[in-house]
Design goal:
It is a single chain. By secondary structure, this protein is an alpha+beta fold. It has two domains: about 1-30; about 30-130, Lipocalin. The chain contains one helix and nine strands; from the N terminus they run H-E-E-E-E-E-E-E-E-E. The chain has an eight-stranded antiparallel beta barrel. The longest helix is centred in the first third of the chain and has 26 residues, at about 1-25. The radius of gyration is 20 Å and the shape is globular.
């Protein structure tokens, strides 16, 4: 009985640490798989990118180039941050390339109007899910 009482504070401490870590992880927006709003084939609105697109599914991100190259990478984790304007979210998808180097693929996502993606380095270029592109 005394032995059980002695272990009680340890169990409470362990539960507290586990709960604290879960709150921190979910509070920071760390995900292991993409949200449904990101899953799909994304194509650019600019004619220069007609044959270029990327696809996000629950396990991988795949890039299709104009030259016909296809490169697919398993997703390690995803970070999500809501921007101050409350309209845009910043996502960062982490994966390892063929050389096993950690790569960060960051973009802004706006959920309204069926979702729009913009890259930081090309803010004027709009990417939409394939089913949502008007031809």
């Amino acid at each position: 009985m005394i032995d059980q009482l002695a272990r009680l504070p340890q169990k409470k401490s362990l539960l507290f640490v586990a709960a604290f870590m879960a709150i921190i992880t979910f509070g920071c927006g760390i995900l292991t798989t993409p949200c449904d709003e990101l899953v799909g084939i994304w194509k650019a609105s600019d004619i220069r990118y007609n044959d270029t697109y990327f696809e996000i599914d629950k396990q991988a991100i795949t890039f299709h180039t104009k030259e016909g190259n296809i490169e697919s990478y398993g997703i390690m984790k995803i970070e999500k941050e809501t921007m101050p304007d409350d309209e845009w979210r910043q996502y960062t998808i982490y994966y390892r390339n063929r050389d096993l180097q950690k790569v960060e693929f960051s973009f802004y996502f706006r959920p309204s109007h069926n979702g729009v993606i913009r890259f930081k380095n090309q803010p004027s270029l709009v990417w939409r899910k394939e089913a949502d592109i008007k031809t």
